[in-house]
Write a structure and sequence with these properties.
This protein is α+β, with helices and mostly antiparallel strands. The protein has helices at about 10-20, 80-85, 140-150, 205-215, 270-280, 335-340; strands spanning about 5-10, 35-45, 45-50, 55-60, 65, 75, 95-100, 105-110, 110-115, 120, 135-140, 165-170, 175-180, 185-190, 200-205, 225-230, 235-240, 240-245, 265-270, 290-295, 300-305, 310-325, 325-330, 345-350, 360, 370-375. The protein folds into three domains: about 5-120, DNA Polymerase III, subunit A, domain 2 (DNA Polymerase III, Chain A, domain 2); about 135-255, DNA Polymerase III, subunit A, domain 2 (DNA Polymerase III, Chain A, domain 2, Roll), CATH 3.10.150; about 265-375, DNA Polymerase III, Chain A, domain 2 (Roll), CATH 3.10.150. A hairpin with a 3-residue loop joins strand 3 (about 45-50) and strand 4 (about 55-60). Helix 1 (about 10-20) runs antiparallel to helix 2, helix 3 (about 140-150) packs across helix 4 and helix 5 (about 270-280) packs antiparallel against helix 6 (about 335-340).
Length: about 375
């Protein structure tokens, strides 16, 4: 005799879990089971919902009482389940129950739905085949800052697939995130301490970075994020949510050679002021060029944009020269603005010549635990 699976819970409780679990699920799938969420038991009667696209899997556990969950679990259409729950009345009670036809009955007040199911045995789980090479914990807020500081520089160029993610690695007691697309580079360093000595350098795919960033944004900044790293897989666990992801199989370039160390000409400036000026003058730039010319003087930087079809834009921002000589250099205005948007407060820039990479960095406070550096390649103007 077949036992009947059933659960009853508040609409908000189930909806929150579904929204988290379906994040990696693609709307269009050639493999039907990949369009489904897996519902199974995480232990002690706890319901777990999971979604995957074969490369990354998000799971969330929630304390919902249930009866007779099959050992392999049950799968339900992710998008359909989500859409139904969103339309149900707030704070209503939802019941899921399997029927004789193999469908799942969803009831809420006078609303009735019958959802097609697929066997849990067919749902592809991302499981760790070997113990991780390294495991460590980091405050959620710190890792969110490290990802947020570099993710904008991830390449979208598929031919250089090894740049399509964030490079995570350790150097001594330092945890480091890096991203570059060849035109700009961003690096964040946290002096983390123990637990990373055996960690291999890995490349976290762009989609996984985005999913993790969403989870971290909703979490308490002081909550402990557990990270487990192996040669071809990375796992994150934060409270009731876990993410398991394949890694990009490739060799990350020696990015340290790109970061200037001895640029002799240095300035300090207010980031918000320079960002606003960049956005203003770039209004007249062409879609093709997007070049902004910057003339760094002793107490001001002049920004100039010239577009033969639209006209010219010019602005000036006060700066403080620390050492060196005046420099004229050009940048892609969009790249410059993207970078400045990720630097808090005041910053420094170190330049060599107008043909050499520029190094930008925030003015760090004594209690800052994350050190950031940004590199922009120049443009001919």
């Amino acid at each position: 005799m077949t036992t009947t699976f059933a659960l009853t819970t508040l609409r908000e409780t189930l909806l929150a879990a579904v929204e988290t679990a379906l994040a990696p699920v693609e709307r269009k799938n050639t493999i039907p089971v990949l369009a489904n969420l897996l519902l199974d038991e995480a232990g002690s009667g706890t319901l777990r919902l999971s979604g995957t696209d074969l490369d990354v899997m998000t799971s969330v556990e929630t304390a919902i009482e249930m009866a007779a969950m099959p050992n392999a679990g049950i799968t339900l259409p992710a998008a359909l389940l989500h859409d139904i729950l969103r339309k149900l009345p707030p704070k209503s009670e939802v019941t899921l129950k399997t029927g004789a036809s193999g469908q799942m009955a969803l009831t809420c007040g006078r609303s009735r739905f019958a959802l097609a199911t697929l066997p849990g045995e067919d749902w592809p789980r991302l499981v760790e085949k070997e113990p991780p090479a390294a495991r460590f914990e980091i405050p959620a807020g710190k890792f969110a800052a490290m990802l947020g500081a570099v993710a904008f520089a991830i390449s979208t160029e598929e031919t250089r697939y090894y740049l399509n993610g964030v490079y995570l690695h350790a150097a001594g007691d330092q945890l480091i995130t890096v991203a570059t697309d060849g035109h700009r580079l961003a690096r964040a360093v946290w002096s983390a301490g123990a637990g990373m000595a055996d960690m291999p350098g890995v490349i976290i795919p762009r989609k996984t970075v985005g999913l993790l960033a969403s989870v971290l944004k909703a979490a308490d900044r002081q909550a402990a994020l557990s990270v487990s790293v192996s040669e071809n897989r990375i796992g994150f666990a934060l409270g009731a949510v876990s993410i398991a992801s394949k890694l990009i199989d490739g060799t990350y370039p020696d990015y340290l050679r790109v970061i200037p160390q001895d640029n002799p000409n240095r300035w300090r400036f207010d980031v918000a002021a320079l960002l606003s000026a960049t956005e203003r003058v770039s209004i007249v730039s062409s879609e093709r060029g997007r070049a902004v010319k910057m003339v760094w003087g002793r107490d001001a930087v002049e920004l100039l944009v010239s577009n033969p079809d639209a006209g010219e834009g010019q602005d000036t921002v006060d700066v403080t020269a620390d050492e060196g000589e005046d420099v004229t250099i050009g940048f892609n205005a969009k790249y410059l603005a993207d970078m400045l948007a990720h630097i808090p407060g005041a910053a420094t820039v170190a330049l060599d010549t107008g043909a050499a990479p520029a190094r930008f960095a925030p003015v760090h406070a004594d209690d800052d635990e994350i050190d950031m550096a940004f590199v922009l390649m120049p443009m001919r103007v």
